[in-house]
Amino acid sequence: MKKNSIFKVQKDAWDIFLRGLHAVDPFSAIERNVKLTGSILEIEGQKYDLDNYKQVIVVGAGKAGATMSRAIEDILGDRISFGHVNVKYGHVDTVNTINIHEAAHPVPDQAGYDGAQIIYDILKKTGEDDLIIFLLSGGGSALMPLPAEGISLVEKQQVTNLLLSCGATINEINTIRKHISRFKGGYLAGVAYPSTLITLIISDVIGDPLDTIASGPTVADNSTFDDCLRILKKYDIIAEAPGSITRHINLGVAGVAKETPKKGDPIFSKIQNVIVANNMNAFKAGKKKAIELGYTPLILSTLIEGETKDVAKVHAAIAKEIRKSGNPIAPPACILSGGETTVTIKGNGLGGRNQEFALAVAIEIEGMENTVIASIATDGTDGPTNPAGAIADGSTIERGKKLGVSAVEYLDNNDSYHFFHKIGDLLISGPTNTNVMDFRIILVV
Amino acid sequence: MKKNSIFKVQKDAWDIFLRGLHAVDPFSAIERNVKLTGSILEIEGQKYDLDNYKQVIVVGAGKAGATMSRAIEDILGDRISFGHVNVKYGHVDTVNTINIHEAAHPVPDQAGYDGAQIIYDILKKTGEDDLIIFLLSGGGSALMPLPAEGISLVEKQQVTNLLLSCGATINEINTIRKHISRFKGGYLAGVAYPSTLITLIISDVIGDPLDTIASGPTVADNSTFDDCLRILKKYDIIAEAPGSITRHINLGVAGVAKETPKKGDPIFSKIQNVIVANNMNAFKAGKKKAIELGYTPLILSTLIEGETKDVAKVHAAIAKEIRKSGNPIAPPACILSGGETTVTIKGNGLGGRNQEFALAVAIEIEGMENTVIASIATDGTDGPTNPAGAIADGSTIERGKKLGVSAVEYLDNNDSYHFFHKIGDLLISGPTNTNVMDFRIILVV
């Protein structure tokens, strides 16, 4: 009987995840946010009369691009004049009008560059009478690479690697990358101006910062060419950086190359940026499912970062407290938690942050009854592995022991994949064509 | 105005802590749990008629011992025949009947040994007609050192250091330590038998495991001499360990030295173990104060462990989510969180886990308005420093910059004390004569 009950709880966790995932599916996300009534397109209260526009053009980039395209076609139909969206190889879908252009991710390739050039040419030709719908999702930056003139993709990659190797922060790297692009950091908005532009965004970044998701192509930037020069000097890499890049930055400092557009720039006057799906959307839906299944739900936070195994300890502490004292909520309890943690790799095993989380949490909840904790990547791919994540319960460690696998050893070797593969508790969803970071569930019944 | 309001929130945090601290003060703790009506002593529903006992004897050990003694004297008065309690140097209080015996902590000294010997002699002489009240609190193990016969304090310390240096787990170390003691691991219960024994415990251990707090002198033990031998073999330290200790363990394995008493042993039939104060008691009281001050309170967990700066990130993520979406609760919100984190020391600065937590959390909440996060050691001493902890808000980092101190650099150097000393946000309570681990407060208004 106990065995049956834990299976039921495991199934509940999976069902809660699926409900959440459904809410952030590109199709649901666009349907929820984009309404067409007659010729009136309404998005977050803002109305556009399509009869006022000569052309409705769809462009975009990102791993969810193909399904977002299908969704927007489903709503706008032949209102769409034409379109071009860069997607990751294989991430295709059935579309009619919009051209789906496959390219490489996470390392950009020539196909991505060619597709970005097509988007650039389309935007350059649009005018005041055109409405552009820009579909943006995770991977959009790498899938739409368009360095400033005179800079090659390889040189751009070189300076990124150089910055990484000398310990530059992600913020510093992005400052440089925005300034050597023709799209990032709001530059794309300048290319599209004076068209009307609506950016529909599936957010895969903690806190949904518009200037960070896909490097903020349609959002004002705060950083400057002066900052870029300061960063190159700080890490003493002016000599090492590709000449084309230092030259471009120096031109920017001299006021010759154009600065990233700043807040208040008129090019942003005709732009609406809309987050159509994020981590919280998934949790709100998951929460409803949890209530249907009889759980008291609590959304802990969508903003969780930190070393995976320590974050797991805090989650285990909450699960144990639920059992011990009914705090922060009494059983049957469902805690939902999101964001994206990091793994400091020390071993040479295989795994992803979600599987590592599940393994670390399993060690902490060993022996606890009627408790299930799952961690799942909403894009269906946890790190360099096939599964989306893994599921842990009070018997995980014991079952591992019986099969000759030690959780502590596998965790030390960052080999969560092989641990869960062995005990059969990997969670496999297949590619989901979306990404709103991670979905963690604690169920204590 | 804004400045005034953050001062108000800081004061609220401190007041919530003080209310919590009051509830775990040894005096409040004993008053809450021990009732005397006529000759009837009632503790957690269990009744003892003091008229049935020839003597009521108070013994004990721990940093809270003196104030616990004063509290039990306040209730039992001249019903107490005599008493002897080992405390840390300087941790004294005004008592009448009970002898307060000062000794060294955390490294035991001869005074501790002498005091433990006195307790041993007292317990040895008691009989069926005697009621013993045993006062136990943090530090009780080190303050009441009584190795098995033939083993010196120095040898006991040697084997502990040896085990630590070869990476033995705390569980393995405790298994050995219990088996080479005359008190730990339930041995004390055997010495006191057949007296009636009530152990009143202030818990400074996560989850209040009775067999771990002060090494469980009045609780059954699970481990065996066979385990001890296995551990010595595992780390290959049989040759290195002091001869007196390997000899004692071998005598145990051979059935000559007495095994730690196990569950079901009749010596436990007349023992009541009672946790009179723990982390949760502090939070329940703090929660009431938070409600009085107009906050919606949520007790997250009293069981939180993990690397301090990663635990801080999770707490910051919760604070930010409260502000962003009103989850897990809407502002004005008060999250209470306990347990005890660890710090992996990489720098050579000064600090404690609570100050490090406050510094790490300050970095994460930089710029957030009307948010205060404090972390405080309930014993009033955070690590090897004077303050109990520190308090962070959205302006902490900026104020540091203005005074020329970089939070990131001070955190990297584990120098939280000097950072908060510089900006004036240390929290100083003085010694509290109690310890129920840490008290963290998030206030978002």
Keywords:
homodimer; 445 residues; alpha/beta; glycerate kinase, domain 1; Rossmann fold; 2 domains; 6-stranded parallel beta sheet; 6-stranded mixed beta sheet; 16 helices; 15 strands
What is the domain tally of chain A?
2
Largest interface: A-B, 28 and 28 residues
Would you tell me the structural class of the helices and strands of chain A? alpha/beta
Question: What would CATH call the class of the largest domain in chain A?
Answer: Alpha Beta
Q: Which consecutive residue ranges of chain A, at least 5 long each, have pLDDT under 50?
A: none
Task: Detail the topology: elements first, then pairings.
The structure is a homodimer of 445-residue chains.
Chain A: H1 2-24, H2 26-33, E1 34-37, E2 40-43, E3 46-49, E4 55-61, H3 65-76, E5 82-88, E6 98-103, H4 110-125, E7 130-136, H5 140-143, H6 153-165, H7 170-179, H8 187-192, E8 196-202, H9 225-234, H10 243-253, E9 271-277, H11 279-292, E10 296-304, H12 308-325, E11 333-339, H13 353-364, E12 371-377, E13 389-393, H14 396-402, H15 407-412, H16 416-423, E14 426-427, E15 438-444
Parallel strand pairs in A: 4-5, 4-7, 5-6, 7-8, 8-9, 10-11
Antiparallel strand pairs in A: 1-2, 2-3, 11-15, 12-13, 12-15, 13-14
Helix pairs in contact in A: 1-11, 2-3, 6-7, 7-9, 9-10, 12-13, 13-16
Can you describe this structure?
Two copies of one chain form a homodimer. Chain A is α/β, with parallel strands linked by helices and 445 residues long. Chain A folds into two domains: 3-19 and 280-444, MOFRL domain (glycerate kinase, domain 1); 26-146 and 181-223 and 260-277, Rossmann fold (3-Layer(aba) Sandwich), CATH 3.40.50.10180. Helix content of chain A is 40%, strand content 20%. In chain A, the strands form three sheets. The first copy, chain A, has a six-stranded parallel beta sheet, with helices on both faces. In chain A, strand 2 (40-43) and strand 3 (46-49) form a beta hairpin. The two termini of chain A are 14 Å apart. The model of chain A has no long low-confidence stretch (mean pLDDT 95). At the A-B interface, strand 10 and helix 12 of A face strand 10 and helix 11 of B.
